[in-house]
Amino acid sequence: MTVVTLGETMALLSTPAWGRVTGGSALPVGIGGAESNVAIGLARLGVPSTWISRVGDDAFGALVTREVRAEGVRVLAERDPEAPTGLMVKEMRGGKPWRVRYYRRGSAASRLSPSDIEPSVVAEADVLHVSGITAALGPGPRETLDHVIGLARAAGTRVSFDVNYRATLWPPAEAGPVLARLAAAADVVFAGPEEAALLLGREPVREPSFGRGEDLARELAKTGPGTVVVKLGALGSVALHGDEVHRAEAVPVTVVDPVGAGDAFVAGYLSGLVSGADVRQCLRLGNAAGAAVCRVPGDWEGLPTRDELRAEEPVEVVR
């Protein structure tokens, strides 16, 4: 019952609550990265997880690996002496997150290559989880994704893929075909309505609904994945598994910071998957985990433990 993740984690700086940076401003330092968020979320839910990446041989790289490891995640991250750890800056306005800027070009993680992957680590896992963010980092990371997915397929390890499209990293015309190919190679695909439309070459979805989510899931399933999960935000989530459709309504929550909710959803869903839960229960676990993260500031700090997730009604945590 183990999950392996692969992707970039960056140092995270947050501007003052009022937004303006002046001389002498203190900027809190943290970390953030989709795949490590999922790994931390799984670890808190009692699922052994491994995170594979590259970081710079610098203070930020040391921070990233130390923080992820401190959460109980097995860290396999090469320290690169020739490239820095990526950086993102969360700009605040009125005390709330307003915009995130990324400084990751030429980062250590953009130099990921197949040589960074130990085949036995993938072969021994129950699930390999990757995302479209890694594909956007450059040719090396993209080749690494193809390589690690190939290793997983050969070993019988299930492949989980979160589309995680980032318009700031690459344009839709370039991203669409690459992400669609990766989704087709996965066993489980996670996407928002707009991401699903991107993969299918459709117009963006303006008004998400369970019905529209189901339609998108059915279309995506025709390309290869056995399970397609469409995250509908405040509505909840819908999944197509085989020929069966499953829906789960969202947990009502007052949103403080939505960043990281999608990663939390994936962690909750995968915790159910590796525990043998049915698809609807996996959706409910994902919804509850995503809601928990929305309640507090930060990308991953609000990821729930098993006890905390159990307190979310009407969720029943599978033992």
TrEMBL record:
Family: Belongs to the carbohydrate kinase PfkB family.
Pfam families registered for this protein in UniProt: PfkB
Carbohydrate kinase PfkB domain span: 3-305
InterPro entries (alphabetical): Carb_kinase_PfkB-like, Carboh/pur_kinase_PfkB_CS, PfkB_dom, Ribokinase-like
Native source species: Amycolatopsis deserti
The protein's name in its UniProt record: Ribokinase
Alphabetical UniProt keywords: Kinase, Transferase
Annotated signal peptide: none
